[in-house]
Give the backbone structure.
Amino acid sequence: MPLFKRQIIAIFLLCGLAFAARGETLRVVTEAWPPYVFEENGQPAGLDYEISREVLHRLGIELDLQFMPWKRCLLALEQGHADGILDIFHLPEREASMLFVEEPLSEVEFVLFHARNRPYPYERLEDLRDLVIGISPGYWYNNEAFRNSTLFSREEAPTHEANLGKLVRHRVDLVVNDRRAGLFLSAQLGLLDQVDYNRKAIGHDRMYLALRRDPALQQLATDFARELRRFKREPAYARLQARYARPEDSRP
């Protein structure tokens, strides 16, 4: 084997050892997005959190999860203050700075939520003409026509909770969110009687664990994907999915 190739392999091995020497803890950031990931009694919880914790545990790694606004999450990863970011969409432009685990954690279905006493039926983009739609800053919606449309205006809110609050107070006409997340949050806020959603989805996507693009984390990305696929075939994974299957049942 040429000397140069041996040197490259040695560098990668040393990087891997350096990661292990940090105490086998993965520093991950995310924004709360129940039921996928959120805080409960001061502790992390949620479907994708539990999945990630279990997979990392099998790899002998502890998960250190910190919550912050989404734009700060992206900045923390970019500046090297975090090893990974939980529940992120895989976009080509993010690959330069992020190492995406190949196997997705969850699939999402983006829908338009409306106040029950002021419904706005949605079947096509023309139905949204002149409306104000609440969105979350920094979030990606996997529907190019919707993202670029000038038929309606967009209004950002600092949190998903704020978006729903504006919706029931008629400060926005519609709010875009994942169906399961919107229902779960509405239940937690006691708003299920005031909020509904259009059954036609505006888009579907998958959420991933992305790691900082660092040779020290390359092997971890491969191992995580392998163990995640294995976990998905087990009864424990099916039980976990069933526990979060109907977020509307979480009404207080």
